[in-house]
Design a protein that fits this description.
OB fold (Dihydrolipoamide Acetyltransferase, E2P); two-stranded antiparallel sheet
């Protein structure tokens, strides 16, 4: 699994019938400090995630192991929405206070 943030959507009016009902997102890879990397992937959403959310995704053959993607021609799938993440005992991410911009607290 990899850590990423959903930064965009992909709309395709013509696609293989095996992926017709699947929602596609652009997922930007994240570092352990929740900063964006240059790399990204287009992933199928299997958990009802949305724009701006920090997620866990899997790629390769593991992407076809969810109920939604089994037997479908996909190479990446969002399989979890991250609520909180601790690294070395320190809180580095909390969904409740995330704004999507590093170093900027959520508005109340």
């Amino acid at each position: 699994m990899k850590l990423g943030r959903i930064v965009g959507t992909v709309v395709s009016t013509r696609k293989d019938e095996k992926i017709e009902s699947l929602k596609l997102y652009v997922v930007r890879d994240l570092s352990l400090s929740i900063t964006e990397k240059d790399s990204f992937v287009v992933a199928v959403d299997s958990v009802g995630s949305g724009l701006g959310e920090v997620v866990l995704y899997s790629s390769g053959s593991a992407a076809r192991q969810t109920n939604m993607t089994d037997g479908r021609p996909v190479d990446a799938v969002v399989m979890a929405i991250v609520d909180q993440m601790d690294v070395h005992g320190e809180l580095v991410y909390n969904k409740a206070t995330d704004t999507g911009e590093p170093g900027r607290p959520a508005e109340e």
